[in-house]
Amino acid sequence: MWVKKDLLGLDDLTKEEIEFILATAESFKEVSSRSIKKVPALRGKTVVNLFYEPSTRTRVSFEVAAKRLSADVINISTETSSVRKGETLIDTGRNIQALNTDIIVIRHNCSGAALMLARHVDICVVNAGDGWHEHPTQALLDIFTLKEKFGKIDGLKVSIVGDIAHSRVARSNIWGLTKLGAKVTVCAPEMLIPVGIEQMNVRVTNDINDALKDADAVNVLRMQFERDAGGAFPKQLEYFKNFGITKERLKNAKKDIMIMHPGPLNRGVEIASDVADGDNSVILEQVTNGIAVRMAVLFLVAQARDKNSN
Amino acid sequence: MAQPKAVGFFVLDKETLARALTRMAHEILEKNKGAGDLCIVGIRKRGVYIAARLAGYIKKIEGAEIPVGTLDVTLYRDDLGLAEFQPAVHKTEINFDITDKNIILVDDVLFTGRTIRAALDALIDLGRPKTIQLAVLIDRGHRELPIRPDYVGKNIPTSQKQSVAVRLEESDGVDEVLIVEKAE
Amino acid sequence: MKILIKNGLVVDPANGISGEILDILVQGTKISRVAKNIKTGAEKVIDASGKIVMPGLVDMHVHLREPGREDKETVESGTTAAIKGGVTSLLAMPNTNPAIDSAGNVRLLKNIINKTAEANVFICAAITRGRLGKEITDIAKLKKEGVIAISEDGSSVDCEALMLDALQKAREEKILVISHCEDKTLSNNGMINLGFVSTRLGLRGISRESEYKRVDRDISLAEKIKSPLHIAHLSCKESVEIIAKAKKRGIKVSCETAPHYFVLSEEDLLGYDTNLKINPPLRGKGDISAIKKGLKDGTIDVIASDHAPHTENEKDVEFDHAEFGTIGLETELAVAITELVKKGFLDWQGLVEKMSLNPAKILGINRGTLGTGAEADIIVVDPDKEWVVTKENLVSKSRNSAFLDRRLNGVVCYTLCSGEAVYPP
Questions:
Q1: What is the dotted CATH code of the domain comprising A6-135+290-309?
Q2: pTM (2 d.p.)
């Protein structure tokens, strides 16, 4: 059962709510395999992609998901809208609502922005990534992909490698996976491990071989060297040398270890090309599953809002 | 959803239900001149079990294995967001090409016709069948759309205050159909 | 004009009175008698039976925003809020626009105060010109204009030599230095306390070191030249410990905390409430205990509001973009009563010491007492009356209170400022 008009993060969802989204996504996956890849579930509804950060893959994924549900989609990005003229997020949200739209999918560089927007509009808000805080649909599609392969999440050993400190993908994955019973290890250079992360019930290691050993799956985060803040980031080559996922390193891991990456890939930085393209990689399946998960999320929030307003 | 209380009267029991389904299987074969190009698609949830049983009878009669699929019409409903309960979305599982096939669409109770309307849309999104024929266990009347069944297990005149409870072994542990007075 | 306050429970630690039923007679601007059952004719008689009568609060950390940001607060609106909250004297911080860094700017502010203030406003000037941390202000001239303290509040004087120089000159001029302790290289553009909550919310953290290392530095500078020093808004355990040790060594250091630091913690920030975005940040549960302990054992001398008004436009934005600060003039007394007195951390005498007598002593002003002949700054407080903080019942020009929706005990019934019944209006 789903009753929330917004999806803001996995921190505030129960295990049952997460499982309900995943189960719904499973049903939606079939739609994308048809020759007519469209169902009328959100016919007449308008989804607004409000993106304050450049992102092609997440925006396109949401757009495809919305269109397969027969919704109309409007894309607003900072380059083309009045947000550049100093309009506040709340005003922008209210204006979008005044257009009688139904769902805002928001990507924002400030943590907490999606929550703030959700408090100020009555229409649905779906968080497509806020600052370092959460990226719930990415984590849901990662978990969906894991579940598809392993059948269950409970007891699964998942390692997340990369810039944990500044990663919303890591945070959402940790919340979701631990709630479903997975054993999560985070691995990064000391400087990129955030304070108190172990209180999220994860194991912390600075040793990549330790993170790979025994893991059923490894989720390799994108290293965002472009937002180098205060010299906390190691050099690219140095990072690859110490933390890059290579064939050589995987020799000591489980044979069928699943390799995941939220994209876009930095080949030769956090992951070697032959690993990214190898048999254990599910990187493209993640992209496919992203559509199903986002369809489920858009459908569920829209339905919950309709129900609440009746 | 809460099961309506078993205060009501029986319309079908295990035996009469089996007899009705056997008859429907015969009618389907007769009308389609055998089992060639025939497919059966059940609508979730009880239509699925009835579809499987019809396929079973057809196999007994003709010895032919015909493809059976499952249709979830939730995404095609015209009352999404109006429904008092929230319908969960389930999988549609039709692992065969329906184009140029004669599809027997199966549901347990035919009432307003809106589910069938949704099912027709859902089917047509999957391909272009030669024909779609409708088989229902119970036709209780009160149509709101111009929809008519091709095969009926039993016609039961009902009032709007009544509801029809179909119980099948697969889901409810017993084969019976009752008419129940709705609580006010 | 004579005002007689009858039958109140008088709390006046300066004169060793703690909760006796006494009458207070005010004549002109002064207190003329404190005794049982004063029988005399008065133009106004205030029945204070069942109420606490105490000296008006002295809040030594207030941002009135005037001149420059009259949209946030003015001397008039800020002092109106003050008397509603029982604050009869306050120290206005110099981070206005222009900053209070010259005799001329002090005169400008004094002029506004004379025309519009509803309470006693004392002036704190900047340590450096334009608060730029480059050149020390003319402390002697400022003193002559009536400035009683200097502070760089809002930031710290990063240059050690400059701070040393300021402490030296302040000592010569007998003027108090108030230090905002924050090493910006360590607070790292942070938003909230560095810890699990900042990790969970994905917000940049402000380390505790950024505060206590600067507390440590400024105390050692004050120790070196034996000058008094007051540390503003303590928020963390380590700072309390450092000050406790310094006091033991006999260093003349005093300090204050604000109500939000002994009530609210970083965990209250889980909903990204920008009214709780404060600098220094709300810390952990352990820090709250340490602050309360410090208040109880005397390490912390003063409770001040750090009243920091901001407009809704500056708070109703993304957390990263919101201004730091909460207002506090109207809630500080009730929060202290509810959280400290009612819960047994301080008695009434202790409360009056922290909020009236001690700040008056530290600032060297003749307040905080109900002695005969003292300035008649008196408040009558209903200690039990319950109220809820809402935007509607605040009179400050800004409504950014960290205590919105909170249920509190303690309401100011009357405020007398220099013998005049200024509240209720």
A1: 3.40.50.1370
A2: 0.91
